[in-house]
Each structure stands twice: as C-alpha cells, then as structure tokens.
Amino acid sequence: MVLALDVDNLDNGLVNSIDHFFDALHTSDMDTFIVNWRDLDKNLVGGHDRESVGSETSTLALGVSDCMKVLCDTFLNLELRSESHAVNLCRDLTSLNVHSEKERIHTPSRSPSPSRATRSPSPSSSQL
Asked: According to the UniProt record, where is the region Disordered (predicted)?
C-alpha cells in the first residue's frame, strides 16, 4: 500500500509542478520551484531504480518534463525577443530625440508680424 501512496504522490507532484512553475514565475522566485523539481526528479529516479514506478507514472513524468522544457524555452525566447525589442525602441527614441533637437536648432522661431502686433481694433468692432 505504501507503493501506491508513493506513486500517487509522484503523480500529484508531477501535475502540480506545472502550477508551481507558473506561481514561481508570477512571484519571480524560482528557487523554491527548482528545489521541489529536483526533489521530484530524485524521487522519480529512485522509484524507477526500485522498480516501484509504473509505466503510467513514467509516461506522465516524460510528458511533464517535455512540457517544462517547452515552457522554459518559450519564456527564454520571449525574454530575448522583448530585450531585443526594448533595445530597438531605445535606439529609435534616441534617434528621434537627436532628430528633434536638430530641427529645433535649424528652425527659426516664428514671431508675429509687426503689422499684427501694432494693429488697432477696427472701427466697426469698437462701435458694436
């Protein structure tokens, strides 16, 4: 009966590891997840060596492991792309600031024409 409990714990640990992975990402704390993942791996390998892990649990372990690999690769790729995008945006912003600064230096400021500045109100508007 202890073997069944161990296998159930391994199965639950495998399934729950995906939730723990996302929780760790959300809190930006992968340390606890990594410790738990290593313990789960050690228990699976130990159970496999003792021949107490069945084919269903082994298949589940391989599936979860593959899923974790895909998730990790996806998030790493996403991080690299976002870093690249951020670098491009900073470069564009710097270029835009330099371009705007050059325009401001080369464009003379417009002042009102002397005729508009000294014009007195028209007689018709003052009579209303």
From this structure: 100-128
